[in-house]
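Pasting two entries for a bug report.
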Amino acid sequence: MPKLDMDKVPVKTGSIYPEPYAAMMRGRSSLRLGEAAGLTQFGVNLVRLEPGAVSSLRHWHMAEDEFVMVLSGECVMVQDAGETVMRPGDCAGFPAGSTDGHHFLNRTEELATFLVIGSKAPREVATYSDHDLRIEIEDGKARFTYRDGSAWNGMRE
């Protein structure tokens, strides 16, 4: 495989989350570098967070390991125990099955970028720590449920 032409890697914006969560992802985009390189066993994504943006809903993975390295700017990693400021060169790992949900916020006035590397399990379940929401992914198809496994049909009051 030749060197990736970063100008030709499609930028992914938006979210597969159901509303109202999808709207919360404004200002986040990513380049699916692993996909562009033809990788199938693990994902590599370059995530860009505009000022005020959030990377995702706070979540944890049942079957997939995840590793993050900040490349530019500054973001705040939020976990169960609190917040940690992350700067270029700072790294964090999230082992599969650890129920300590995480996500990243950009509270600065500058763009923040980080690399996310994660395994691609054939079947995955991610649970959203602060919401009654789960995603089940199998054979590349995503299905949202409530935490109890029942089908998602909108935000519960």
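Entry 2 (this is the one that rendered wrong in the viewer):
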Amino acid sequence: MPHKLTDKGQATRARILEHAAELIYTKGVHATNNEQLRRAAGVSGSQLNHYFPTKESLVLAVIAWQAERVLAFHRSERFTCFDSLNAFRDWADFYVAYERAYQEGCSLGSLASEIIKTDLDVHEELAGAFDQWRNIFRDGLQRMQRLGSISADADPTRLANLLLSAYQGGMLLAQVARDITPLKDALRAAIDYVQTFAMSPQADVLQAR
């Protein structure tokens, strides 16, 4: 966020980012141009250039904006820091129950699929966003180990990679099929595997779906 922006300036910048993210999602990075963005966001060329003088600066800001939305949701109190199997089940159930999940897809994943096709120098920032997301899961799994909920044999980093990959892959297949089932199966299979490391499986049995 640029320094010393007024409330109005912050609102204008946020509006530009929201419309830029939508245009990139629907049209792609290369097909999104300043004229389209100016019309969609209702700003002038000088305003757009003031906040984002280059396309790279715009894409970097969109990455940060989308990442913050995803990360804030996963860091919210509803998932209690992902330090229990129930927290992971609640996370999976949220997306399975969200009726538009397979239509909207993953905002950050969709952005990534567009950006990796370009020659913009933003891959490091995009990778960093996914690292932060994965680390939310990893940190929760590490806490579960410290609490004695899962065994020391579990590898929190590998399990976190599995959970994030299950979500991204399941969401893509759900979008293709226009059916939430692939996402549901992928997430529940991943959490079932985490369950195999539970120290007291009798006390935390997966509910029949």
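Dev reply: Rendering is fixed now. As a check, the viewer should reflect this: The chain is about 70% helix and 0% strand.
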